[in-house]
User: Fold these one by one.
Assistant:
Number 1:
Amino acid sequence: MQNQTQAGERFSPFLTLSRDEWSRLRDSTPLLLSEADLAQLHGLNERVSLEEVEEVYLPLSRLLNLYVGATQNLYEATHAFLGHQSRKVPYIIGIAGSVAVGKSTTARIIQALLSRWPNHPKVDLVTTDGFLYPNAELERRGLMQRKGFPESYDTRRLIRFLADIKSGKPRVEAPVYSHIEYDIVRGERIVVEQPDILILEGLNVLQTRMSTSGRPMTIFVSDFFDFSIYVDAPEDLIRGWYIDRFLKLRETAFRDPKSYFRRYADLSDEEAVQTATRIWEEINAKNLRENIAPTKSRADLILAKGAQHRVQEVHLRKI
Ligand SMILES: Nc1ncnc2c1ncn2[C@@H]1O[C@H](COP(=O)(O)OP(=O)(O)O)[C@@H](O)[C@H]1O
Ligand SMILES: CC(C)(COP(=O)(O)O)[C@@H](O)C(=O)NCCC(=O)O
């Protein structure tokens, strides 16, 4: 039994660091953040503690900075070898994980921290929800209750978007999704113009699914990633974060006259918890179990959170 465990540990592709071990790795980072910078980061999401930024996200930004620098050198070496003029190719970081685990908050913190390093000041952020089919198309395909499932995305369009970015196109556009309207915003675009780093955040970014036609896909979204992060937490905690966010939105975004969820704005506390729990169970938990959690081991780094979004452990791919 013991031998089996030892063998299992020996062959794990991940190195596991406790929070303390991980946070010590920041010590040799020249601290690029002033108190004012930290305060500004806190402004991204007032629920994120500064301790968390310093102990978890600063070491992460140091690691990413080293990786980006190494990749930039590698590109230059290839271009020198080929005798080409080197041209800028954005470094792409994918961030995966469940609905409500904190992907977009993590992405925004990483964006803010990475843009402070001198060799990659321009850091753009795109979310995959823009590549969901519009509601009209989801309705046509009978997929309105499957939003976020692999088949609800125009994966080919997402792959074309990434291929354009990696081929060095000066200007690439992505469609935009509105959480208020619960739909793609017609005519609105986010423009990506050769950033140093692009962060792509979404539920499905590590998936290797079949195409809707049933033919195997020969290329995956993650083929374009230079680095990927999976934000992880126990399912019961994520359910709680989903319900909390729903209650908060009931006070704010759901009151917007344009909100698809206007009808939820006047729910009592108890009704709101019941509604959020139902959506969680019927859509998001199912998607997490079937399609998202199985992709965790494909990430280069896993942030394992506990209560209050506090990162407890970091698993870093070593091979
Ligand atoms: N590091 C964090 N500390 C505290 N609260 C957080 C943190 N990350 C996310 N949250 C909260 O958890 C909820 C889900 O986060 P969000 O980033 O919107 O998730 P996702 O993009 O995965 O759906 C939000 O209410 C957010 O404020
Ligand atoms: C828009 C989402 C699919 C997330 O998309 P992502 O940016 O991760 O691709 C998700 O937030 C969502 O709306 N899910 C449908 C069920 C729900 O309303 O929670």
Note: The two ends are 25 Å apart (CA to CA).
Number 2:
Amino acid sequence: MPKCRPIRKCSRPIWEATMREQQHLLEVSNLNGWYGESHVLHGMTFNVGAGEIVTLLGRNGAGKTTTLRAIMGVVRKRRGAITYKGSDIISLPQHKVPWLGIGYVPEERGIFATLNVLENLMLPPVTQSGGMGIDDIYQLFPNLRGRDQTPGTRLSGGEQQMLAIARILRTGADFILLDEPTEGLAPVIVEEIAASLQVLKQRGLTIVLVEQNLRFAASIADRHYVVEQGVVVDEIANEVLPASMDRLNSYLGV
Ligand SMILES: Nc1ncnc2c1ncn2[C@@H]1O[C@H](COP(=O)(O)OP(=O)(O)OP(=O)(O)O)[C@@H](O)[C@H]1O
């Protein structure tokens, strides 16, 4: 149990705050971000606990992808704080971020047409121990098994998404930023990806998910942040999502 220092007599709210602080793997605080002169993030503030699946929900153009890109350092013009495992990472150069065990699966997936499945899988360097081996990957994504020599872009959209996730898992990343993994995929594939992410959660991985498919998001997430015009405007725990649908729909304009 954590000690409450320097306060000798520990009141419950302070103790709970201490616990919450200790459990946050990622803290994003008042994050502002720009593309050139275009100010897109206006003070994003949210946190992610170890082992959680947290979503960023919001209308098109709200700034969800930009938030992931700002965490990875792809968006360079940023202000505010991004703290990972208690250390500031906003001042790190982009190429150092993956070496913290943070993996990014972008919306466009980035599967190389000129490389086969195995070559695509082996492309990024292993950044941390504990990454998944090829057999483990094929167990998680059976659709990829036996496809080693298939050119990456000969795979279906769903299989390419699986390959994009698998490639990051092989690196040893245990904090994954996942941008719209279900976009354009058939419901049966969406279910398979949901099942895979649940397995990853059971193994203790932490995931930040940008997602438009609410049913999918609700089937795996612990908490949801609603983003509007580059700022978090609401937080909804997954267990109260069904009762919060009117509120959420008004944000999403559904
Ligand atoms: N490379 C870029 N250069 C300039 N502006 C950009 C760039 N990428 C995105 N934007 C703008 O930044 C804003 C936020 O975009 P972002 O992609 O983060 O939104 P999003 O919430 O992820 O929405 P979507 O679901 O459409 O991807 C939008 O106004 C978008 O037009």
Note: Helices lie at 12-23, 64-72, 117-122, 134-140, 157-170, 187-202, 214-220, 245-252.
